């Protein structure tokens, strides 16, 4: 889209300059096509030029005034009837102008009257077509903007649903560390502060560097290790170096949170494996946790909301660019996510 000056303010100027250029060429064509020695016809076209200029006025009234005002109100029939009435009005006005300019006894006046009628309807048809195309594009743009706003609202809502249970559990762990006068109390508090800062501020961005997301993931895992101490074995492996990749914030955490939520409580010797592998154009993320079939039914109404949440976010943000496989086998629950960076 051609833009200059103040961006959107420049668009109407560019559009109208294009239209004026088009009509300037259209009006100049008769003079371009006439032979240099045909002075009679050249003089004739000069005389009827004021009448021809009214076609430009007709076009702009139909395309720039009637169209935007009536089509925006879904009054198509009113618009078409208005254009028809306006066209006949211009035909009559041009007839008077040409009779006055060419004199009634001019032998070519009937031909130029007919030619003028054709030009009026041409200008009217061109104005209608232009107005309809512009209205259609405007409606499509409005629909796209509305859809984008809805997607933003849905994504904001989905992000806000990330479970806060982890924060409360860490706070309880900090209280325990403080009471036991553990040297870990201060660093854990600082880690939690950094994690909450990330959740509240940086995660509001549309996308963030992959390096920050992995750093948040590591911070999260370290805090969980402190919370569960020796009760769970957590293994994290990261292959590759984050470069210029960007990712939706807090996209991987729900899988890890789900592993700690369902892979610790009633599981004997709980284990959690987390693998991150990345290249410039691809991310592979795998989370595995041991499970047991003897665990009581989870009564938490929010159970599973994290994975449902992340599925929907993936559909919105990475259509046709991700694969998510979730399965249970041989006493392990595994979630594998692959994303192709655009």
Notes on the structure:
The protein is 61% helix and 13% strand. The chain has 342 residues and is of the alpha+beta class. It folds into two domains: 7-156, no CATH class; 161-340, Heat Shock Protein 90. The strands form two sheets. It has a five-stranded mixed beta sheet with strand order 2-4-5-7-6, covered by helices on one side. The radius of gyration is 35 Å and the shape is rod-shaped. The chain starts with 9 loop residues before the first helix and ends with a strand.
CATH topology of the largest domain: Heat Shock Protein 90
Uncertain spans? 1-9, 299-303
Distance between the termini: 23 Å
In terms of quaternary structure, the protein is: single chain
Largest sheet: 5 strands, mixed
What's the helix-strand series?
HHHHHHEHEEHEEHEE
Number of β-strand runs: 7
Structural class: alpha+beta
Q: What is the CATH superfamily of the largest domain?
A: Histidine kinase-like ATPase, C-terminal domain
**CATH architecture designation of the largest domain:** 2-Layer Sandwich
Roughly how many Å is the radius of gyration?
35 Å
> Which percent range describes the beta-strand content?
5-15%
Give the integer mean of the pLDDT values.
76
Can I get a quick summary?
The protein is α+β, with helices and mostly antiparallel strands. The chain has helices at about 10-35, 40-70, 75-100, 110-160, 165-180, 185-200, 210-230, 255-260, 305-315; strands spanning about 210, 235-240, 245, 270-280, 280-290, 320-330, 330-340.
């Amino acid at each position: 889209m051609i833009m200059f000056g103040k961006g959107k303010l420049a668009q109407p100027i560019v559009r109208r300059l294009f239209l004026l250029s088009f009509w300037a060429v259209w009006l100049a064509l008769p003079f371009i096509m006439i032979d240099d020695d045909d002075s009679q016809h050249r003089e004739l076209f000069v005389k009827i030029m004021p009448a021809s200029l009214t076609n430009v006025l007709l076009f702009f009234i139909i395309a720039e005034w009637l169209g935007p005002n009536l089509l925006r109100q879904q009054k198509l029939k009113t618009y078409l009837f208005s254009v028809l009435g306006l066209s006949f009005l211009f035909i009559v006005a041009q007839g008077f102008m040409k009779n006055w300019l060419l004199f009634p006894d001019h032998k070519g006046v009937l031909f130029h009257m007919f030619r003028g009628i054709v030009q009026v309807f041409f200008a009217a048809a061109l104005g209608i077509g232009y107005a309809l195309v512009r209205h259609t594009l405007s409606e499509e743009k409005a629909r796209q903007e509305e859809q984008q706003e809805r997607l933003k609202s849905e994504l904001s809502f989905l992000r806000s649903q990330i479970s806060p249970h982890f924060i409360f559990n860490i706070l309880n762990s900090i209280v325990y560390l403080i009471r036991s006068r553990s040297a870990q109390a201060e660093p854990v508090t600082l880690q939690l502060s950094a994690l909450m800062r990330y959740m509240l501020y940086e995660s509001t961005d549309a996308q963030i560097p992959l390096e920050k997301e992995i750093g948040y993931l590591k911070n999260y895992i370290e805090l969980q290790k402190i919370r569960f101490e020796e009760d769970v074995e957590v293994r994290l492996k990261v292959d590759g170096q984050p470069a210029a990749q960007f990712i939706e914030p807090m996209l991987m955490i729900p899988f890890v949170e789900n592993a700690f939520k369902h892979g610790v409580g009633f599981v004997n010797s709980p284990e959690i494996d987390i693998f991150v592998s990345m290249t410039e154009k691809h991310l592979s993320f795998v989370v595995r946790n041991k499970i047991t079939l003897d665990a009581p039914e989870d009564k938490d109404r929010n159970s599973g909301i994290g994975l449902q949440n992340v599925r929907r976010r993936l559909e919105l943000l990475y259509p046709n660019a991700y694969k998510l496989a979730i399965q249970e086998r041989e006493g392990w629950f595994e979630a594998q996510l692959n994303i192709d960076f655009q």
